[in-house]
Amino acid sequence: MKLLKSTLLLFIFCITNSSFAQNKILFDATKAEMCSNADWIIDADAHNIYFNSTTHIPYVSAGSTTGASYAQRIPSPAQSGITSATPETFWEGGISAIAVDCAKQGYIVETLPYNGAITYGNSANVQDLTNYKAFVVTEPNTLFTTSEKTALMNFIANGGGLMMICDHAGSDRNNDGNDPPTVWNDFLTNNGVANNGLGITFDILSDVSGASTSFATLTTTNPYYSIFHGTFGVPNQVLWTSGATMTINTTNNSATKGLVFKSGSSTTGLTNVYVAATTYQSGKVFAVGDSSIIDDGTGDSGDTLYTGYTGDASGNHQKLLMNGMIWLMTTNTAANNENTFDATHFTIAPNPIQDKQIHFTFSLDENQNTTVALYDTLGRLVKEQTLNNLNTGINYQSLDASDLQSGLYICKLSNVTSSKSLQVIVK
Length: 427
Known about the structure:
- This protein has 427 residues and is an alpha+beta fold.
- It contains 5 helices and 22 strands.
- It has helices spanning 96-104, 146-157, 180-189, 225-228, 316-328; strands at residues 24-28, 46-51, 58-60, 68-70, 108-112, 134-138, 161-165, 200-202, 208-212, 214-215, 238-243, 246-248, 257-261, 273-280, 283-288, 346-348, 357-364, 370-375, 381-387, 393-400, 407-414, 419-426.
- It has an 8-stranded mixed β-sheet.
- Helix 2 (146-157) links the parallel strand 6 and strand 7 (161-165).
- It is globular, with a radius of gyration of 22 Å.
- Mean pLDDT is 85; it is low at 1-20, 61-65 and 333-344.
């Protein structure tokens, strides 16, 4: 029996437990992210430690004042102590600010230490990727192994979200002959699962710098809309400081889209891309060409620190990256249309909402008891309402949102036979 119909891309929100923890984010530290002048970790209790350039095993150099931070799995102090007023200095890492922001959103954050294993489906590994919803890798400096590349692709295919942060060519921190663009391109083009299947290639350029306000135009029906119109606001500029650009191949993956471009340089939307996003089967990928925008200006005292997360582009980097993170932490819009309907109506407009009322339209083939429910990005039920005075055909209804905080929510319409969901932004 047909109930709800929609012309929009539909967002099926799973309330039941899935194969990975819906609110956990893992930050990688296995790919020499701490070598030389880098400190791409969320927290460390030990600083100024040296890493063997071949084995990447840390060791202490007596009396040294330079070196790297040694990231542990669980950041300390415990993130349970984080409140809305907690500063990013709560933790000691070059990218602690974004981790603190994630904790403020209710996500659980961890680090995969230098000796951790990137696996998918290995129950013996307590940090197996099945235990996480998103995996963040900033400036990897050693190649992923064949098994690691397979694990990453399986993680994405099964609903995981990968945040890829790159940097310019020549930023080989550990002098092993592989810089971040080389590492990422090896994964993208030679993963053995879907070579070139993500439709992204990092350009091998030594220095891409400059501000840009060249953002793609996204409508409310675009699956990437919330990256530009999300909980953290509307980003409208970026500043690249010795980063990289990307090239998009929509033949290999039609879902791949350039979101931000080097100012005035792209007429096709496929080249000179600063920021990109894509989907692959049930998962998502958010790709950024410059690591300076995630750098919060703190971390190991022996490193040259840079304030890009909130210090550059009038705070727009924080908006862009956190909206992207929240997008990764929600279920893939296009990949979960298990229920198929002859689409005509299920829309929310305006979206973002403007008067603290969620106005939505839907179509019924036959009058049945129908409910509307609202969930936050962690899958928690915020409110639920049984709809009254429904008719066969088009129905117009509203849900009061005046008591809700600003942010991204999932609006789910359902009856005994089917359900459909859409993203809605409350301002």
